[in-house]
Amino acid sequence: MTRAAVFGSGNWGTAFGMVLADAGTEVTLWGRRADLAEAINVNRENPDYLPGITLPDGLSATTDPATALEGADFALLAVPSQTLRANLSGWAAQADSHTVFVSLMKGVELGTCMRMSEVIAECTGAGPDRIAVISGPNLAHEIARRMPAGTVVASAEQATAERLQKACHTPYVRPYTSNDVIGCELGGAVKNVIGLAAGMADGMGLGDNAKSTLITRGLAETTRLGVAVGADPYTFAGLAGLGDVVATCGSSLSRNHMFGVHLGRGLSVTQASELVRETAEGVKSCESVLELAERHGVDMPIARAVVGVVHDGHSPKEMLATLMARSAKSEALY
Ligand SMILES: NC(=O)c1ccc[n+]([C@@H]2O[C@H](COP(=O)([O-])OP(=O)(O)OC[C@H]3O[C@@H](n4cnc5c(N)ncnc54)[C@H](O)[C@@H]3O)[C@@H](O)[C@H]2O)c1
Ligand SMILES: O=P(O)(O)OC[C@H](O)CO
């Protein structure tokens, strides 16, 4: 039987643990809190993140990373992107030499501008055949209710992608394989930044044309960055690109979207953080995405405008004025 350790018992770690278990994979969920692990094991529920959802039998929880990793074919990582490096320094040595590390995260590390698969490679020493990424339009609360979705399982090694695809294929999750790890990761990380901008537009009541324009031009600048760092531009037309940006920008279940809505309604970053208490990756990753773009000489006006609001004290109205005042140009798709 395939075994998986899932690190992070928040929304996505728990929901994706359910997917794996429903696909017949034996899952051990790691979390920091003993009381939450006990609630999961005894009550078959994660009351903090997915209240009212009964967890499948093939899923148990622990606070001990070694127990989670014992015999694991896959170690799936669903912690905040900015803590991954510190987390892996405590866990990596306990993994078997064959364990495949899988990023479920959608962020870029501050300071280094590394994608999560790059952080994994550096911290674990795993080669490309032992690294994978899963990304797509996957709102945890819908998946946990077994509502249908597609997703992308990406690894440089096709055999790794196919093994992981099998380990998470259920009647309600349809995983597609890809070899474009860079494109899938950047699609996931940058859509959170676009989601913040679209949320601000919604919060300001700017209408569907404005939001659609942000989605489309946001995808263009995401693709521009992706191509500059080695991604396949077509990946951004797929589930990990277009698919995810549409789900994020359109859903009130998206934390990034809702964070932006609060800002657009006039709340401060501190007030929005208090309302959206869960991980909204774009709030931090907008800075690392923009820095990555600048390192590669790529223009990302929407990401720059989001950084202006979230970190430099600009108002969403100023963001709108800045974006609309840009000089006229032809519509390059990236
Ligand atoms: N929620 C979704 O719908 C969804 C879907 C796809 C991808 N993701 C991505 O998955 C990742 C996790 O998101 P989430 O929704 O599960 O977030 P969450 O806020 O629901 O859960 C985060 C988990 O990480 C834990 N955590 C926080 N700080 C930690 C630390 N320093 N060390 C170890 N653990 C720590 C928290 O206790 C919690 O269990 C993010 O990168 C997110 O973009 C989320
Ligand atoms: O809640 P968000 O904004 O982190 O989005 C969740 C997923 O990434 C959507 O695919």
Q: Which kinds of small molecule does this entry bind, naming each only once?
A: nicotinamide-adenine-dinucleotide, SN-glycerol-3-phosphate
The percent range for helix content is 40-55%
Could you give the order of strands across the largest sheet?
Answer: 3-2-1-4-5-6-7-8
What is the CATH superfamily label of the largest domain? NAD(P)-binding Rossmann-like Domain
Order of helices and strands: EHEHEHEHEHEHEHEHHHHHHHH
Extended strand count: 8
Low-confidence stretches: none
**So, CATH architecture of the largest domain?**
3-Layer(aba) Sandwich
Average of pLDDT: 98
Instruction: Note the main sheet.
Output: 8 strands, mixed
Using the CA coordinates, give the radius of gyration: 19 Å
Indicate the CATH topology of the largest domain.
Answer: Rossmann fold
- Note the total helix count: 15
Output the structural class: alpha/beta
How many domains in all? 2
Note the overall shape: globular
Roughly how many Å apart are the termini? Answer: 44 Å
What is the CATH class designation of the largest domain? Alpha Beta
Residue fraction in strands: 5-15%
